[in-house]
Write a structure and sequence with these properties.
- The chain is of the alpha/beta class and about 200 residues long.
- The protein has a single domain, classed as Aldolase class I (TIM Barrel), CATH 3.20.20.
- It has 7 helices and 10 strands.
- The strands form 2 sheets. Strands 1-2-3-4-5-6-7-8 form an 8-stranded parallel β-barrel. Strands 9-10 form a two-stranded antiparallel sheet.
- Helix 1 runs parallel beside helix 7.
- About 45% of the residues are buried.
C-alpha cells in the first residue's frame, strides 16, 4: 500500500494481530490516563514483544515529562513517540525520526504551525476535552497546499476513507472509526476499511 496505515488505541493482543494481518504498518498505544484507550506499560510491553519486527510500535503521550516518555519507550520497545503540540517542555526535546508531533487543527493558523514543525506532523481534529480518538473530522480543505508529508487523523472511517486518501497523506491514523467501543476494535469494520484502502491505492 502506498499510504501507510496506523491503527491506534490498541489495548489487546487480538486487535494488534488483526491489524497486522490486515496490513497495518504501525500500531499505536495510548499512555494518556485521560483516554478511554489508555493501556498500561506492562500490557503494552507484552504486545510489542510479540508483534513482528517490521511493524512500527508507537506510543501516544499527553502532558508527560520527556524523561518518563523515554523510559516508557525503552521499556515497551517502542519505535516512535507521538506527543501533542502545545506542551513546550516536549517541543524542545523532540528527536528526528522518532518524534511525531500531533497538532489539533481548528483553522489555518494551526495548519501553519504544523507546516513549520521540526518533527513529523500528525494532523488531528481539535476537541476541547480529548486528545485524539474523538471520531470527529476537521476541515480537510485546509490541507490542500500543506506542502510536506503528514499523517492524517481525526474521524477517519470507511465512509470517508476515499476522501482522506485523495489528500495523499504519508499515512493515516485510525482509532474510533474501526471500533465497537473505545479500545475494542471491530473485525468487520477493520476488514472493510482495509478493503477500501487497498482498492484505492
Amino acid at each position: 500500500m502506498k499510504t501507510h496505515v496506523k491503527i491506534c488505541g490498541i489495548t489487546n493482543l487480538e486487535d494488534a494481530m488483526l491489524s497486522v494481518e490486515l496490513g497495518a504498518h504501525a500500531i499505536g498505544f495510548v499512555f494518556y490516563k485521560g483516554s478511554k484507550r489508555c493501556i498500561s506499560c506492562e500490557d503494552a510491553r507484552e504486545i510489542t514483544c510479540i508483534l513482528p519486527p517490521f511493524v512500527i510500535k508507537c506510543g501516544v503521550f499527553v502532558d508527560e515529562g520527556w524523561k518518563r516518555i523515554m523510559e516508557i519507550k525503552d521499556y515497551c520497545n517502542l519505535d516512535r513517540v507521538q506527543v501533542y503540540a502545545g506542551d513546550e517542555s516536549l517541543c524542545g526535546n523532540s528527536v528526528p525520526g522518532i518524534t511525531i508531533m500531533a497538532f489539533r487543527i481548528r483553522d489555518s493558523e494551526d495548519v501553519e504551525k504544523a507546516q513549520r514543525s521540526d518533527s513529523f506532523p500528525l494532523l488531528d481534529s481539535y476537541h476541547e476535552k480529548m486528545h485524539g480518538g474523538s471520531g470527529v473530522m476537521f476541515n480537510w480543505e485546509l490541507l490542500k497546499d500543506f506542502g510536506r508529508p503528514f499523517i492524517l487523523a481525526g474521524g477517519i472511517n470507511s465512509e470517508n476513507i476515499d476522501s482522506a486518501l485523495k489528500l495523499n497523506p504519508y499515512a493515516i491514523d485510525i482509532a474510533s472509526g474501526v471500533e465497537s467501543a473505545p479500545g475494542k476494535k471491530n473485525p468487520e469494520k477493520m476488514a472493510e476499511i482495509f478493503r477500501r484502502i487497498k482498492g484505492m491505492i
